[in-house]
C-alpha cells in the first residue's frame, strides 16, 4: 500500500505541536484556550444529540398524515431556519425572561444551537425519507407490515443511510455555531481566543491555533461520518468482487 | 472490395489489467457497411470509441484513408497525434450515441445547425438550411423547434442522426443506436439507418444487438468476443451457418431471448 | 410581560431599518465576492496542476470547518497589523466573501459535474474546439443546477450578517443591541430583528423558487 500523506503528517504535527507548546509563547494563552475548548465540546456534543432527535421528530412530522402535526413541524422549520442563530441565542437569553422563563447560559446555548441545527436536520431527514424508493413502501404493504414497524424497520434505516453525508455537514455547521455562544456569556474556545488576543496581542498565533482546533474538530466529525457511511453501505455495494 | 477506408492494425486497449481490445486487425472498405455483434463486455463499443478518438489506444495504429489517426507522421517517424491532428481527422467521422447526447438546452434545429458553425466555421444561414433538409430527411421537420426533452427516444435518435450528418462526415459510426429506445420506436430509427446504408455511400460501422437488422443492412458481420474478432464474413454465412462454437452459442442465446 | 407598541414603532423600527440596509448591502457585496473567489477556487480545484488542485481542495475543506466569527475577528485584527486599514464594513464584506467562497466553489463544481459526460463526448465528436464546447454546450447546462444552491447560499449569507455585530458593524442586530443598552429594553428590539429576518428569508426563498422555475423552462418538459 502506498503511504498516505496524512500518515506522515500526524507524527510531524505531533512533534511540532510539542515543540511549539513548550518553547514558544503559546504557553501564555494555551491554557485559557483549552478551557474554552472544553466548553465548546460540552456544548457541541449534547446539542448535536438533541439536534438529531429534533431532526427525526420534525422531519417525520413534516410528512405526517395529521395536518396539525405537519403545520407545526413546518412552522418550526421555517422559523428556526429563517432566523440567524445569533439572533435566536440573544432572544432565548434576553427576551425569554420577559415571558417568565429564565434560562441558564448553558441551557440557552444548548437549546438555541440544537433548535437551529434541528431545523436544517428536519429537512435532511424529510428529503431522505422521500428518497427511499416507492417500491419499498409498496413491498411493506404487500407484506402486511404495520405502520410503525414499516417506519422503524424499513424506511428509517434506509433514510438514515441516505442522510449521513448531509447530517455530517449539519454537524459541522452545528460545531461552527458553538462559536457564537459568547452571546449568552459562555466562554468557548473562540471567546477565549478573542479575550486572550486582547490581553497578549499574539493575534497570529492565537488565531492560527484557533483555526487548527476547529479544523481538527471538523475533521473528526467528517471522519466519523465517513466511517458510518462505509459501515452502513457495506451490504449495499453493488457488483461483484 | 473497394478502396480501403479504415484499417485497425494490431490495436490493443487495456483498462488496468483488463484487456479490452487484443491485437485487433480490421479493415473496412469505402462504402462498406460493417456490423459488430457479440456479448456485452466483448469490446465492441471500445472499437468505436477508439476510432472516434474518445479513448486513446495503447498499441497499434488506426488508419483512415491511408493516414494514421492516432499517430502523426513527423520527419519519417510515427509519433502520438496532436489534438490538432485528431481534430482534422475527426472531420471525416460522425458518431451516433446510444443515449443520443443531444444538447438539451437547444432546439432540434439548433442542435443540427450550431455544430457546423462552431466546429467547421460554416455560415449560419447555410448551416440552417442544410439542417432543415436533413431533419426533413429523417422525418423530423415538424419537430424542429422542439427541445429534446419534449420528444420520444426514437425522435431524439433520428434528430441525433441528422446532427451527425450535418457535419458531413464520410464515415458513420453507430453505438447501439436502438438500445435505449422503447420497442415501438425502434422501427423508425432502423428505417433511417437502413436508408443511409442503401441509398448513400457512407462507410458505416455499427454495434448492435439487433441481429436481424444487422443481417439486413450489412455487407459484413464481425462477431466479437473477449477483445478479438472470432468470426467475420457475409451476414448469411456468419448468422445462418456460423463455424465457430462461440458464435453458435451466442446466436443460440440471442435466438432464445427473442 | 410588557410589550410597548409605541416604543416598537417610534424608536425600534425607525432605528433598525437603516441597519437592514447595511445588512442587505453586506450580504449582496459579500455574495458576489464569494462567487468571484469561488469561481477561481473551483477552476483551481479542477486544474491539471495537481499541486494547485491540492491547495484549492485543502483551502475549501479548511474554510468549511471554520466558524465565520473566527474569520471576521482574524481579519479585523490582522489587516491593521499588516498595514491595511479598511472601513469596518469592507472588512466585514471581505470576511464573509472569503468565508463563503468555499461553499460557492463546491456549488459551481457540482453544477459542472451535473452535466453528463456524454455532453462532453458529443461536443468532442462534433469537433467543437474545447473552449467553444465549454462555452456553448457545458456552461449553459451548468447554470440551471447551480441556481438553487447559490440561492440558498445567498440566504445563508444574509443570515450570517448578525455575526458582524461582534465587531460593531451597524447592521440590524448591532443596532438592536445599541437600543437595548440605551433603553434597557431587550424584548422589542430583539423580537423585531428576529421577525425581520424571518420575513426576509421567507420572501427571498419564494423569490429564488420563482427564478429557478423561470430560468430553464424548456428543459423541464418530459423526464
Can you summarize this structure?
Chain A has 241 residues and is mainly alpha-helical. Chain A is built from nine helices and no strands. Chain A has helices at residues 5-23, 26-62, 67-82, 85-95, 105-131, 134-142, 147-177, 189-200, 203-233.
| Portion in beta strands of chain B | 25-35%
> What order do the strands of the largest sheet of chain B run in, or round the barrel if closed?
8-9-10-3-11-12
Looking at CATH, the homologous superfamily of chain C is MetI-like
Mean pLDDT of chain B, to the nearest integer, reads 91
The radius of gyration computed from the alpha-carbon positions of chain B, rounded to a whole number of angstroms, is 18 Å
**What series of H and E elements makes up the topology of chain B?**
EEEHEEEEHEHHHEHEHEEHH
Low-confidence stretches of chain B: none
CATH architecture of chain C: Orthogonal Bundle
Q: Determine the fraction of residues in helical runs of chain C and give it as a percent range.
A: over 70%
Number of helices of chain C: 8
The name CATH uses for the topology of the largest domain in chain B is Rossmann fold
Alpha-beta classification of chain C: mainly alpha
The separation of the N and C termini of chain B measures 34 Å
Summarize the topology.
The complex is a heterotrimer of chains A (241), B (258) and C (223).
Chain A: H1 5-23, H2 26-62, H3 67-82, H4 85-95, H5 105-131, H6 134-142, H7 147-177, H8 189-200, H9 203-233
Helix pairs in contact in A: 2-3, 2-5, 2-8, 2-9, 3-5, 4-5, 5-7, 7-9, 8-9
Chain B: E1 4-15, E2 18-29, E3 33-37, H1 44-51, E4 59-64, E5 67-68, E6 71-74, E7 77-80, H2 83-90, E8 93-96, H3 108-120, H4 124-137, H5 153-166, E9 171-175, H6 183-199, E10 203-207, H7 211-217, E11 220-225, E12 228-233, H8 235-240, H9 245-257
Parallel strand pairs in B: 3-10, 3-11, 8-9, 9-10
Antiparallel strand pairs in B: 1-2, 1-4, 4-5, 6-7, 11-12
Chain C: H1 5-45, H2 50-64, H3 68-81, H4 88-113, H5 117-125, H6 130-160, H7 172-183, H8 187-215
Helix pairs in contact in C: 1-2, 1-4, 1-6, 1-7, 1-8, 2-4, 3-4, 4-6, 5-6, 6-8, 7-8
Amino acid at each position: 500500500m502506498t503511504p498516505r500523506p496524512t500518515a506522515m503528517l500526524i507524527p510531524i504535527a505531533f512533534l511540532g505541536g510539542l515543540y511549539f507548546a513548550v518553547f514558544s509563547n503559546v504557553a501564555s494563552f494555551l491554557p485559557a484556550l483549552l478551557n474554552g475548548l472544553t466548553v465548546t465540546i460540552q456544548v457541541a456534543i449534547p446539542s448535536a444529540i438533541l439536534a438529531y432527535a429534533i431532526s427525526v421528530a420534525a422531519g417525520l412530522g413534516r410528512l405526517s398524515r395529521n395536518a396539525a402535526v405537519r403545520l407545526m413541524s413546518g412552522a418550526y422549520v421555517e422559523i428556526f431556519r429563517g432566523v440567524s442563530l445569533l439572533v435566536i441565542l440573544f432572544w432565548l437569553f434576553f427576551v425569554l425572561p420577559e415571558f417568565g422563563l429564565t434560562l441558564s447560559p448553558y441551557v440557552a446555548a444548548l437549546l438555541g444551537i440544537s433548535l437551529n441545527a434541528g431545523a436544517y436536520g428536519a429537512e435532511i431527514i424529510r428529503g431522505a425519507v422521500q428518497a427511499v424508493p416507492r417500491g419499498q413502501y409498496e413491498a411493506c404493504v404487500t407484506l402486511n407490515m404495520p405502520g410503525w414497524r414499516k417506519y422503524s424497520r424499513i424506511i428509517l434505516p434506509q433514510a438514515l443511510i441516505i442522510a449521513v453525508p448531509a447530517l455530517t455537514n449539519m454537524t459541522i455547521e452545528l460545531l461552527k455555531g458553538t462559536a457564537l455562544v459568547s452571546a449568552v456569556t459562555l466562554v468557548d474556545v473562540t471567546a477565549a481566543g478573542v479575550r486572550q488576543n486582547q490581553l497578549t496581542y499574539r493575534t497570529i498565533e492565537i488565531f492560527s491555533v484557533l483555526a487548527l482546533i476547529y479544523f481538527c474538530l471538523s475533521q473528526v466529525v467528517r471522519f466519523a461520518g465517513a466511517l458510518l457511511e462505509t459501515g452502513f453501505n457495506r451490504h449495499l455495494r453493488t457488483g461483484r468482487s | 472490395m473497394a478502396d480501403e477506408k479504415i484499417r485497425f492494425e494490431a490495436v490493443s486497449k487495456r483498462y488496468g489489467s483488463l484487456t479490452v481490445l487484443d491485437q485487433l486487425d480490421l479493415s473496412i472498405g469505402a462504402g462498406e457497411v460493417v456490423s459488430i455483434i457479440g456479448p456485452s463486455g466483448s469490446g465492441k463499443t471500445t472499437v468505436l470509441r477508439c476510432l472516434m478518438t474518445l479513448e486513446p489506444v495503447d498499441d497499434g495504429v488506426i488508419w483512415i484513408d491511408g493516414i494514421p489517426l492516432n499517430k502523426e507522421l513527423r520527419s519519417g517517424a510515427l509519433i502520438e497525434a496532436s489534438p490538432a491532428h485528431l481534430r482534422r481527422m475527426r472531420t471525416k467521422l460522425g458518431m451516433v450515441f446510444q443515449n443520443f447526447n443531444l444538447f438539451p438546452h437547444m432546439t432540434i434545429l439548433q442542435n443540427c445547425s450550431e455544430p457546423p458553425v462552431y466546429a467547421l466555421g460554416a455560415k449560419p444561414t447555410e448551416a440552417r438550411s442544410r439542417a432543415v433538409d436533413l431533419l426533413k430527411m429523417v422525418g423530423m421537420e415538424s419537430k424542429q423547434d422542439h427541445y429534446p426533452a419534449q420528444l420520444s427516444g426514437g425522435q431524439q435518435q433520428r434528430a441525433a442522426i441528422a446532427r451527425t450528418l450535418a457535419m458531413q462526415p464520410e464515415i458513420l459510426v453507430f453505438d447501439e443506436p436502438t438500445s435505449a429506445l422503447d420497442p415501438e420506436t425502434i422501427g423508425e430509427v432502423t428505417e433511417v439507418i437502413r436508408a443511409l446504408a442503401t441509398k448513400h455511400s457512407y462507410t458505416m460501422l455499427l454495434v448492435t444487438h439487433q441481429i436481424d437488422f444487422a443481417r439486413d443492412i450489412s455487407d459484413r458481420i464481425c462477431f466479437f468476443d473477449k477483445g478479438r474478432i472470432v468470426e467475420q464474413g457475409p451476414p448469411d454465412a456468419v448468422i445462418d451457418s456460423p463455424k465457430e462454437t462461440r458464435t453458435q452459442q451466442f446466436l443460440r442465446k440471442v435466438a432464445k431471448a427473442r | 410581560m410588557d410589550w410597548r407598541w409605541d416604543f416598537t414603532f417610534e424608536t425600534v423600527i425607525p432605528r433598525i431599518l437603516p441597519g437592514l440596509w447595511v445588512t442587505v448591502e453586506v450580504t449582496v457585496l459579500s455574495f458576489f465576492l464569494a462567487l468571484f473567489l469561488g469561481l477561481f477556487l473551483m477552476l483551481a480545484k479542477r486544474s491539471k496542476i495537481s499541486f494547485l488542485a491540492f491547495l484549492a481542495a485543502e483551502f475549501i475543506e479548511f474554510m468549511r470547518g471554520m466558524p465565520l466569527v473566527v474569520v471576521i475577528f482574524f481579519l479585523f485584527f490582522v489587516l491593521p497589523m499588516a498595514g491595511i486599514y479598511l472601513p469596518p464594513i469592507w472588512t466585514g464584506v471581505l470576511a464573509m466573501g472569503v468565508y463563503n467562497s468555499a461553499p460557492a466553489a463546491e456549488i459551481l463544481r457540482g453544477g459542472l459535474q451535473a452535466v453528463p459526460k456524454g455532453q462532453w463526448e458529443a461536443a468532442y465528436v462534433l469537433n467543437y474546439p474545447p473552449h467553444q464546447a465549454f462555452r456553448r454546450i457545458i456552461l449553459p447546462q451548468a447554470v440551471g443546477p447551480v441556481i438553487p444552491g447559490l440561492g440558498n447560499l445567498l440566504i445563508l449569507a444574509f443570515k450570517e450578517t448578525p455575526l458582524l455585530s461582534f465587531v460593531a458593524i451597524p447592521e440590524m442586530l448591532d443596532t438592536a443591541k445599541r437600543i437595548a443598552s440605551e433603553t434597557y429594553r431587550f424584548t422589542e428590539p430583539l423580537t423585531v430583528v428576529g421577525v425581520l429576518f424571518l420575513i426576509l428569508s421567507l420572501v427571498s426563498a419564494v423569490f429564488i423558487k420563482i427564478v429557478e422555475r423561470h430560468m430553464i423552462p424548456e428543459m423541464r418538459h418530459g423526464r
